[in-house]
Amino acid sequence: MIKEHQYQQKITWTGNLGKDTASYRDYQRDFEINIPKKATILGSSDPEFLGDPTKHNPEDLFLSAISSCHMLWYLHFCATSGINVVRYEDQPIGIMTEEQSGAGQFTKITLHPTVWIRSAKQVNLAKELHTKANEFCFIAKSLHIPIHHQPIVMMME
Question: How much is the pTM?
Fold first, then answer.
């Protein structure tokens, strides 16, 4: 049986400086993401596109969604495989290529998860489970570009 999950949010542009969008430089790129019963996320465009560098931009959020989805599946598979993960960090890198027209797309995404586990006997399985997590990650499965992984598994002392 297939289950369907629905996600909703409200995105509100908050960057009207009083001149509407009269010209490219007459407005800010600021916005809010509001999801019921959750903290508001303040966003803007990338500073390269006149955005506020102190706020999250769509590209940041996109990369975070991929990385966090992968992490949650990975932790699930470690738990069901008997691997005790003590700590998990990732430093994902996304490459977005902008065309001369201004259009663009992400062309490469690489996750760099570092995982600390307790048993040296489980290092190989801990590395392999990144592939399985990628196969199950809802976000990665929704994309048309491959997600690469360069995992490091460390022993917790």
Answer: 0.90
